[in-house]
Amino acid sequence: MKARYILLAGIAATSFATVAAAQTTPVQDAPVQAAPAPGEQPADTAATPAPIDGQDDIVVTAVARGTNRLNTSITTSSIGSDALIQLAPRTSGELLRNLPGIRVEASGGDGNANISVRGLPVASGGSKFLQLQEDGLPILEFGDITFGNADIFLRADFNVRTVESVRGGSASTFASNSPGGVINFISKTGEQEGGAFQLSSGLDYREFRVDFDQGGKLSDSVTYHVGGFYRIGDGQREVGFDGVKGGQLKANITKSFDNGGYVRLYGKYLDDRAIGYLPNPVRVTGSNSDPDYSSIANFSINNGTLHSANIRTAQTLDGNNRLTTRSIRDGQHPVVYSAGLETQIPLADDWNIVERFRYADISGGFTSPFPASVDSAQSIANGIGGAGAQLFYASGAQAGQRIGDPASLNGNGLLANIVLFDVDLKSLNNITNDIRLNGSLPFAGGSLAVTGGFYASRQDIKSDWLWTSSVQTVADNGRSELVDVRTAAGVPVTQNGVPGYSASFFGNCCRRSYDLDYTTYAPFAQLGLELGRFNIDGSLRYDFGRARGSVAGSDLGAAFGSGITTFDINGDGVISAAERQVAVIPNARSPLDYNYDYLSYSGGVNFRLTDSTAVFGRYSRGGRANADRLLFGPSINTATGGLTDQGAAVDFVRQLEGGFKFRQGGVSLYATGFWARTEEQNFEATTQRFFNREYDAKGVEIEGRIARGPFSLSAGGTYTDAEITRDVLNPGVEGNRPRRQAKFIYQATPQVDFDRVTIGANVIGTTDSYAQDNNVLKMPGYTQVNAFVSIRPADNVTLSVNGNNLFDVKGITEAEEGAIPTNGIVRARSITGRTISAAVRFGF
Fold first, then answer.
1. pLDDT single digits (tens) 247-259
2. pTM of this structure
3. Are 448 and 440 in contact (CB under 8 A)?
4. DSSP-assigned letter for residue 85
5. Does residue 16 surpass a pLDDT of 80?
6. What's the CA gap between 245 and 198, in Å, rounded?
């Protein structure tokens, strides 16, 4: 283990030592990932409100080196730092919805968003086929680690210069485990002098935040940038306690050399708590094909959550089966310490080495209540305590009092059986290194670009699942209370609202321990020929790796021990009914021990029709190595840790795309047709289901921008026709549209910018989709309108007001039920209702 760390660190250290000694002619290529030169605008595309300059529209993500957008056969978009400030997205997921072709279910708070691209599936959660990066390296090697999605460990703040996306294309060969695309958060590096300090606050929700950044020159050859934020408050939905609390600090320093080389050191510290919003109860009337989703009395689907000031902790046994008290207030709690190095070493004319290295110490937790079922209070009581069961408040001001009329409880007469998703993320540490040689040679009257490199990473997945259960009222605004159940004879069957210190409502499953590490190695190469108006490229990537470690849990089978015991949780010397259902992690462990390898390739042609137009085509095949979601399923032999099906190790995505590009005089238009065939094996925690499928998707994405005087309009839309073509485990869904996949998604940002005033809107929408793969219950389409206005009363002072979901629409992004149930209550996630914030920003 240590040898691998030393090897990767040694590569980085060697590059560091070499750069200052390189004595060669300066290269012509700008440093990959370097910030713009002083006075230069960041790379701009349709999603960026700054004026477009064709010479500066450079792609740096998932390519060999910086390339003009009109000269490359890939599809890319970006969002600049100015747009990030003006749009004031409440989460990173909301920000990404402005990228064409990217489908983001941004209803989970600061993380846990489901992110996909061009009809590629989201069968479980996270971003399986799309990689999130910071400065060219992955945040996590796998974007869909269960309860550890990559976006949980990401915060977009003033440190971000550009958010750049590549859909399909060379993402298959210039990044591992990202055949669908790459989204790269590129940091400011201090080439532009100055900074900002901002105070912001919710006007109709309780959250207070401070942001700052500062960058500039320490000398003629040394630049720096530092920035971060801190915040505190309920968050977007009222919970009665500080549901968001924490912040981030990032810094970098860059030394440039006369020969064109540079060395950059950077670091990041993130410690932030944010509520993870899971599905909540909503009433659905009408028909499955034309449903009407409406809020339940005293519980708003837009603004409510089952988090409560009356339910702050949960007692359970930890990963070592010792008594512990867990804080529900921690929510999604990422803790990240990372440090990295980036360097470019010139070797000769048009030849250089680019090295990127990062070590990240990542831990934290994920804790949030999931409603296993919601029904009338008496039905819930009878299901736990038998006919005629009695109900009593177990927390809050009325604790101990009997609920005399369950039908009128909280004005809706409902109770929720809760499974608390409580996961201790002990280590998601990763170490990553990417080194590549870039160069060019004259060839047949043109230029042949050559790239070769090697990527290596190691990803830990060490976590304990500590799920428990409870019964609570359905109330918003932080008012929900725990409820005790007694039999008709008055015998308690719960303890402080807990029917069992386990996942009682999931059949006592899922008390698990993961201790895994995944190692990935990948040599890659590209040849690119520029010949007149043609740009032709082809690239290969060979990924090979290994999965090692072990897991424990009774879900593995009877041979691995029982997952339930008795334990005196409250220490009163008496074993209650709930204390006879205490989940434990058995001592017996199942190994994980297999290797895998796969080849990815991509080839494309771009033809520059005129100085302002181009056409392109590309075919790619990429792979995604499956990770922890294979465990506890049929693909792993529990005795040996090997694969029962070698094909389960990797899911492949094949893609064909082609399109047209135009950019001239403040007007741009990009249109891309695409086709994709996807394999997927996966596991979903909320339903305890495994998937083994193939999908087809085809469609077209269009984005454009026009700027005339003070007015600009950026817009984009993606039409997708997707289908489940094969399902090994559930053939009945073959031919259906994948769940939550809309036919059309769109976004538009009109803006008027006067000397001292900027006014604009951001419109994001989707057509309807199906809640589940059975294609019965529909989730209606919706249009969300956000608006912003900023006033500059004096130089370097900006006052701004931002409204999200201005018309307070319900936007259902997921639902657990595949059809309207008898009681008409569906568990679903909706976008947050209207929230308005104000800020004052000082520039310097």
1. 999 999 999 999 8
2. 0.91
3. yes
4. H
5. no
6. 17
